Write the structure tokens for this entry.
Amino acid sequence: MAILKILQYPDARLHTVAKPVREMSGSVRKLVADMAETMYAAPGVGLAATQVDVHRQVIVVDVSEPRDRLVVMINPEIISSSGESVHEEGCLSVPGVYEKVQRAERITVRALDVQGNHFTLEADGFLATCVQHEIDHLNGKVFVEYLSQLKQSRLRARIIKRRRETL
Ligand code: K1U
Ligand code: ZN
């Protein structure tokens, strides 16, 4: 297993739209194992393949407290959603930034597991938020894009300033 490098906003590669996984090969299983290790090490509660510069539809999520309930979703698709909820979100690609985002409260997601079997996940609360955040990554969307244009440009300026200071 390996810890992968996580792309940092505003990297243009974070806006790449991921392609579906066509075959459940050894390289997909290795990617899943490396992504899980990277997420736990960060630490984070989710990670999308886009964030490690692999543009395939693969996400890993674990919102459990003992960090022992890994959910792997390949080619995830939200087939129904209802309600609205607002949670504070963070992102391993935008360190140090936490903002409230409104999303669906409950979702039903259809996906493949690492064996290539279809399964359906019904999620609500923070798990639903996290899965929606990760699926957004696969569609090339970073959570800060839900913020106003003013907040986004202030954020970009802050990140560029912080990077210049650490060079
Ligand atoms: O996709 C990512 O960048 C991971 C992100 C997922 C996420 C967090 C909060 C709301 C929606 C999606 C993170 O994991 S940021 C780190 C974080 O929130 C956290 C880390 C350790 C323990 C608990 C939370
Ligand atoms: Zn993120």
User: Anything to note?
Assistant: The domain at 12-166 is CATH 3.90.45.10 (Peptide Deformylase). The chain has a mean pLDDT of 97. The first helix runs from residue 26 to 41. Helices lie at 26-41, 125-138, 149-166.
